[in-house]
Design goal:
about 600 residues; alpha+beta; Beta-Lactamase; Helix Hairpins; 6-stranded antiparallel β-sheet; about 50% helix; about 20% strand; elongated
């Protein structure tokens, strides 16, 4: 015994070691997988940010192009108005100056200056304006319209739009680059340190959040000021920008806002804004660490938490293994008890099914006996009624009473036959060839008599003659039972609708397995459809069980659908039902036809 205990302890230790090693290896693999997943997530975030920056830059370039084009249009209109200030070839100086000032006032700070130079060289300014130097000629056409990039001082840049007037002079609008930036891009925020800058197509910075950067060359002047800085990656990106390309780049650069610029990794999206024959580069810049560092910190925290959880998991699993090893001796006993319990449960279910079958057999026997006794009682009633009817004149008052006795006894006998049908006795003895159309039409007369006022009965029965091998009373009972159930289902419906429909058709084996091998036969299809309360799937599974009913006590016995199913099966037919809560119910009966006539065959449809 002691040796077995030692062996068990040794096995336990080995199991714990192997389990711990497995958990450790799994934790490492999970950590690597998590790191890879988070790295992919970081790349997707950065990719999404660059796409967003691309859309923002495109929006700014479109706004700049539209902004400049609007001023070019306004310039053409204003150039045409200049001729109104000439009289006898002499210019009305006061009116012209007022007009130029009005042009600036209308546009606020966006227009730096409006300037007109006559053909003789006389100049008129809307306000005092410094001398300017032309940086680049951006557009010129044969009609005298020009666009130039000019500067006044070190850091003030303007787009000079000019057009020739009818009088031979030239009207110019000076668009302030700063004001243009405020109108088209100042509303955009890119992280904590991000910004949007404008560059000329030769690399000169036209707008930058750091004032000292405006007016310098983006590469040459910076390299001259900081000769030890590595601007290789920045220069490669600027080459693409000055070539008029659109794109994004992740590169090493510096934060120029700092007194001693520090090296930093940036993300930039850029696109040219085409103005005339030239362009201005619009570039959005954001700090790469603003995106990567939070994600990286999150990755570290997640990995730390995952490691802690892994260590705790190892401890928990070691304890769990010890408990499981102690409980192993109980598992066999528990399994044996469960198996015994399942066997007892199965035996109990079998006993319940057997008892239920015995109750049904007893009920069938009792029903058959009761039906037999009632037949014995009804036979002399019907017999003597016939004798009395034969001895009584039809005009006599007693004749109608005797006829009523006979008819009532006959109906009672038909009910007894239905009980016999439920009991399984004498099911086939009254079968014969029936004109099914006539039988159903006669049964509909009885249905009409039991329809309440709030229910509308719609008769869609086919008039095509057809014959089935069956019992007319039983077929009538099918229709009455199904219609009675439909009426009960619509008792709480304000406007009930009961549709009874029939047709002759050829079955399709895909519709139901019952029709396999019967594709060449014709069937009489009888449908009873209502818009009542409907039934759930749980109810549908039990509707054919004898004595199962959803009606209140005293309203039903639960035998109606069970009898209908037995009758349909005795007629070698099929009974189908479709229903859903709140959507009504439809019962469909399929009965095989006996020797169909040519009219029936022609009237048949495909199921």
């Amino acid at each position: 015994m002691e040796k077995q205990n030692m062996q068990r302890k040794e096995n336990s230790r080995k199991a714990i070691v192997l389990l711990s090693a497995g958990i450790l290896l799994t934790s490492i693999l999970l950590a690597l997988s998590l790191y890879q997943m988070l790295s992919n997530y970081q790349n997707r975030v950065i990719e999404g940010q660059t796409q967003q920056m691309t859309h923002l830059v495109r929006s700014v370039t479109n706004s700049i192009e539209v902004y400049v084009e609007e001023y070019r249009r306004d310039l053409r209109i204003a150039a045409g108005d200049i001729s109104h200030f000439y009289e006898d070839m002499e210019v009305d100086k006061e009116s012209l100056l007022c007009y130029l000032r009005e042009q600036v006032a209308i546009r606020g700070n966006n227009l730096g200056c409006a300037f007109y130079e006559t053909a003789e060289g006389e100049r008129f300014f809307s306000a005092p304006f410094e001398n300017w130097d032309t940086v680049r000629e951006m557009y010129s056409d044969d009609e005298g319209e020009q666009m130039e990039l000019v500067r006044t001082g070190q850091r003030d840049f303007y787009l000079r739009l000019s057009a020739k007037t009818v009088s031979g002079g030239r009207l110019s609008f000076f668009l302030d680059i700063r004001a243009m930036y405020e109108q088209t891009a100042s509303y955009i925020t890119l992280g904590e340190n991000g910004y949007i800058m404008l560059k000329a197509s030769d690399g000169m910075i036209l707008n930058h959040p750091v004032e000292e950067q405006i007016g310098i060359d983006v590469i040459d002047d910076r390299q001259a000021e900081y000769p030890d800085f590595d601007l290789t990656e920045l220069a490669a990106m600027v080459d693409d920008q000055l070539a008029g390309k659109t794109g994004t780049a992740i590169y090493e650069s510096y934060w120029w806002a700092e007194e001693e610029p520090s090296r930093v990794r940036k993300i930039s999206s850029y696109e040219p804004a085409h103005l005339g024959n030239d362009f201005i580069v619009v570039s959005a810049v954001i700090d790469y660490s603003e995106l990567s560092i939070p994600i990286r910190d999150g990755m570290v925290r997640i990995l730390a938490v995952a490691g802690s959880l892994g260590a705790m998991l190892i401890l928990l699993l070691v304890g769990f293994v010890r408990v499981m090893l102690r409980m192993r001796s109980y598992e066999a006993e528990n399994a044996r008890l469960r198996q015994l319990n399942e066997q007892l449960e199965a035996l109990r279910e079998k006993e319940e099914r057997l008892a239920h079958q015995q109750r049904l057999q007893l009920l069938g026997t009792m029903t058959g006996g009761i039906a037999h006794e009632f037949n014995n009682l009804l036979t002399p009633i019907m017999g003597y009624s016939v004798i009395l009817l034969a001895d009584t004149e039809p005009t006599s008052e007693r004749y109608a009473d005797l006829q009523e006795i006979y008819d009532s006894a006959k109906k009672a006998k038909e009910i007894i036959d239905q009980l016999s049908q439920f009991s399984g006795k004498n099911a086939e003895k009254t079968f014969r060839s029936l004109p099914i159309t006539q039988v159903i039409h006669k049964a509909m007369v009885m249905v009409n008599s039991i329809i309440p006022r709030h229910i509308r009965l719609e008769n869609r029965l086919s008039d095509t003659e057809a014959a089935v091998w069956g019992n007319p009373t039983q077929i009538t009972q099918i229709l009455l039972n199904l219609c009675n159930n439909a009426i009960h289902a619509m008792k709480d419906v304000e406007q009930g609708e009961l549709v009874v429909e029939s047709q002759i058709l050829t079955p399709d084996k895909k519709k139901h397995p019952f029709f396999r091998g019967k594709e060449k036969k014709l069937f009489y299809r009888l449908s009873i459809r209502d818009n009542g309360c409907g039934m759930s799937e749980e109810t549908l599974a039990q509707i054919y069980v004898p004595f199962f009913t959803t009606k209140k006590a005293g309203e039903g016995t639960g035998l109606g659908l069970s009898i209908v199913q037995r009758i349909v099966e005795a007629h070698h037919g099929l009974l189908c039902v479709t229903s859903a809560p709140g959507e009504g119910t439809e019962f469909v009966v399929y009965l095989p036809l006996e020797r169909p006539s040519e009219e029936t065959i022609k009237g048949g449809k495909k199921l």
